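Researcher: We're teaching a course module on how sequence relates to structure. For the next exercise, students receive a sequence and then see the predicted structure as C-alpha cells, so they can try to spot secondary structure elements on their own. Here is the exercise chain.
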Amino acid sequence: NATMPRWFTEGLAVYFETKTSSGGRLRYELYHTMMRNAALDGRIPSLGGMSAQPVAWPAASSNYIFGAFFILWIAEKYGEQKLIEYIHAYSRQVIPYAMNRVAVHVFGDTIDTLYDEWRNFEIRKARKERMAFEKSIRATPAKQIVSPHRHAHPNARPKHNAFSFYQNDGAHRTGIALYDVESKESSFLTECW
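Model: And here is the predicted structure for the students to work with:
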C-alpha cells in the first residue's frame, strides 16, 4: 500500500480519522468550503495532476482535501466494505501500481473513470449549493453586504442562519467572516489572503 499515490493514502487517513473520532477534517466547514470553491472555480486537479503533486492552490493540501472527498464519495457510492476490499486486494498484488486493475475487479471501473465521475459530482453539488444559497440570500437584508468589489465566495451556513464570505474591503482584516442574518452582525473567523 506504500506504493499508492499520496492523494489516496492521505485521503484515506482523513476519511478514517473522521469516521473513527469525534473530530476529523471531513467535519470541518473550511474543508467543505474549500472543496466547494475549487469545484465552482474549476480547480479540482485532474487525476494526473493530483498524482504529480499539485503546485497550484491548495498545493500539498490537495492530497488531503481532494483525496478525502474522493475516498468519501467511493465509500458512499459503493459502501465502506468495498473500499476496504479494494485496499486489501491492492495490498495482495505482487506488482505495485496496478490501481486500475484492482479497481475494475472491485468497483467494476477504473480509478481514472471513478475520479472523473467524482469531479463531475462535486461540480454539480457545488452548483446546486450555490443556487440554493443565492435563492436564500435574495430574501434577506444581508444581500447588500456581499458586493463583488469587497466580498466574495458567500457560503450559506443554514444551521446557524448565517453565511460566511471572504472579506477584503480595505477597512477590516482580510479573511473569512461570518454574517448572522438574525442579529445582522458580522464576526471575523480567520485571516487569509
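Model: If you want an answer key for the exercise: The CA atoms of residues 39 and 124 lie 8 Å apart. The chain is about 50% helix and 15% strand.
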